[in-house]
Design brief:
The chain has 286 residues and is mainly alpha-helical. It has two domains: 92 residues; 179 residues, no CATH class. It contains eleven helices and two strands, in the order ααααααααββααα. It has a two-stranded antiparallel sheet.
């Protein structure tokens, strides 16, 4: 999910424009324009400014007859911004602001997803120890966007509170070589690895990951919690005579092994006709 396709970011920007009684977002939404990419191509093309004739017809469609010059200027302004965002997207797609390549979702998009997931699982408090960090959300979004499955280990499952409380540091310019090309990236403050050395802390890590998976449309909250329950059921079961008790490290190893199998067997993670490939037949729970 990028800025140009984020409906939440588009809605926020419409609300930020200095309008009085004009609900620009509602008017554009009525024309099936709900994000910057749709607006950029609704009149002219991003790489070619619309003609005066095109932009006389477009405000009439959106605003109706009798629109003012000020209302038209607002529409021109946000259309120009949308075209600029779309033109900058190809460059953003091949360069990364961070060394780990994690996607940076627009802040409005993150907030909208937090609110959506809180409403979707009302019996579970997504707050404090169970609220995933933006960094964790970015890693999960990268899996969704690229289709490249990686194991999101418990140490990666940091919480939002730790991110907020992290000591701010100046970002440093980093030179690196990729495919025989010299690139400049930035390296900002890094969160410490998430502590998962006890039962409750490991559970919190997996729950934060489950929330992030739900937010990124990878794995539903119900399925991720069934896997968590399966692992801890094995951990709490008394071993047969002559065998040792299952350890926390073995739970982590089992989780890692499952995701290795998924990465080997699945070629896509994006939902197809409403079904999420990572959940098909609940293969990972069998």
């Amino acid at each position: 999910m990028t800025l140009i396709d984020s409906e939440a970011a588009f809605k926020q920007r419409c609300a930020e424009l200095p309008t009085t009684t004009l609900n620009l977002h509602a008017l554009l939404n009525a024309q099936n324009i709900s994000c910057f990419s749709e607006l950029a191509f609704s009149c002219g093309a991003p790489n070619k400014a619309p003609t005066d004739e095109e932009f006389r017809n477009f405000p009439t469609q959106v605003l109706g007859d009798g629109f003012t010059a000020g209302q038209q200027s607002l529409l021109r302004r946000i259309h120009f911004e949308a075209a600029t965002f779309v033109l900058s997207q190809p460059k953003s797609a091949v360069t990364s602001d961070s060394l780990d390549g994690a996607k940076k979702l627009p802040f409005a998009e993150k907030q909208a997803r937090y609110e959506k997931v809180r409403n979707k699982i009302p019996g579970f408090l997504v707050q404090g120890e169970t609220e995933p960090s933006h960094a964790l959300l970015g890693k999960c979004q990268t899996i969704y966007d690229t289709g490249a499955i990686i194991w999101v280990s418990p140490s990666m499952c940091t919480k939002r509170d730790a991110e907020v409380q992290a000591t701010p540091k100046d970002a440093h310019q980093i030179l690196r070589i990729e495919s025989q090309t010299l690139k400049v990236g930035t390296e900002g403050p890094k969160l410490d690895d998430a502590d998962h050395g006890t039962e409750i802390k490991l559970q919190w890590c997996f729950q934060r990951r489950g929330v992030a998976f739900e937010m990124c449309d990878l794995v539903s909250w119900d399925v991720s919690q069934r896997w968590l329950a399966t692992m801890f059921a094995a951990y709490s079961t008394d071993p047969p005579p002559g065998f040792g008790k299952v350890s926390l490290q073995q739970l982590v190893s089992a989780d890692k092994a499952m995701w290795t199998i998924l990465a080997r067997d699945l070629s896509s993670v994006k939902p197809d006709t409403g079904k999420r490939p990572l959940e098909l037949d609940d293969l990972h729970l069998q």
